[in-house]
């Protein structure tokens, strides 16, 4: 390749290339839903013995790193500057945690300051070091789509999380799905859909055994990570709006449901 790096710099551990690795990238200015989902995906990947790689940027990148670390797994951050420089600076705590639970990677020499033009180029390393690439929330002209372009050149599989058609943060991911990217529709089936051979980490968290009264169970079973509005829930459960709102309040008080945007509800991760 014309843009093949002359060398790779590390801080922390060297990336284990014999282990499956998945890149998780997306919008810096993401939604609360995107933050929760990227954390959960990072957690689940890591808990199942999969390396998580991203770019330490605010938003989706940072949350996927945090999820991986909280699952006691391994995560790597690819930088657009030297590995001895934390960018953005307010991620210094996460930067230090990644060094202890994976590593910092760059093809720029130590001391190289972060300039804007360097970050799109570093995306070729994110995709190049990963077996699969997951995009969570991206505008039509998102920098995350540069990672997709490199991934396709490298023959890597790309997956995307769908979003509401009226949301700007969904324009890029929805277009990717239309053009043939893999569709991520469920956390539970994510690992299976990625078709990666992994050994399950015994530290993976099991779902809590939650016992709900029948009325709440009916509503809760209709919810997922993609937010639904009251009208949708009325249609799926056959209940009226008063009953739906009453039960949603109960589920929120139990810590099982969140309202990521006005009148839209989803299961809490």
Please list the strands of the largest sheet in the order they lie side by side: 1-5-4-3-2-6-7-8
CATH topology of the largest domain: Rossmann fold
Strand content: 15-25%
Indicate the mean pLDDT.
Answer: 87
Helix content: 25-40%
The CATH architecture classification of the largest domain is 3-Layer(aba) Sandwich
SSE arrangement, N to C: EEHEHEHEHEHEHEHHEHHEE
Shape: elongated
Let me know the number of strands.
Answer: 11
Distance between the termini: 41 Å
**Total of helices:** 10
Unreliable stretches covering 5 or more consecutive residues: 199-209
CATH class of the largest domain reads Alpha Beta
Can you summarize the main beta sheet?
A: 8 strands, mixed
Report Rg: 19 Å
Number of domains: 2
What structural class do you assign from the helix and strand content? alpha/beta
Can you offer a commentary on this structure?
The chain folds into 2 domains: 9-194, Rossmann fold (3-Layer(aba) Sandwich), CATH 3.40.50.450; 214-267, Winged helix-like DNA-binding domain superfamily/Winged helix DNA-binding domain (Arc Repressor Mutant, subunit A, Orthogonal Bundle), CATH 1.10.10. Helices cover 37% and strands 17% of the residues. The protein has 10 helices and 11 strands. It has helices at 32-47, 60-70, 92-100, 118-128, 144-153, 171-178, 190-194, 214-222, 230-237, 241-253; strands spanning 9-12, 21-26, 51-54, 75-78, 102-106, 132-136, 157-160, 182-183, 228-229, 257-261, 264-267. The strands form 2 sheets. It has an 8-stranded mixed sheet, with helices on both faces. Helix 4 crosses helix 5 (144-153) and helix 8 crosses helix 10. The longest helix is centred in the N-terminal third of the chain and has 16 residues, at 32-47. The termini are far apart. The relative contact order is 0.14. The model is unreliable at 199-209 (pLDDT under 50).
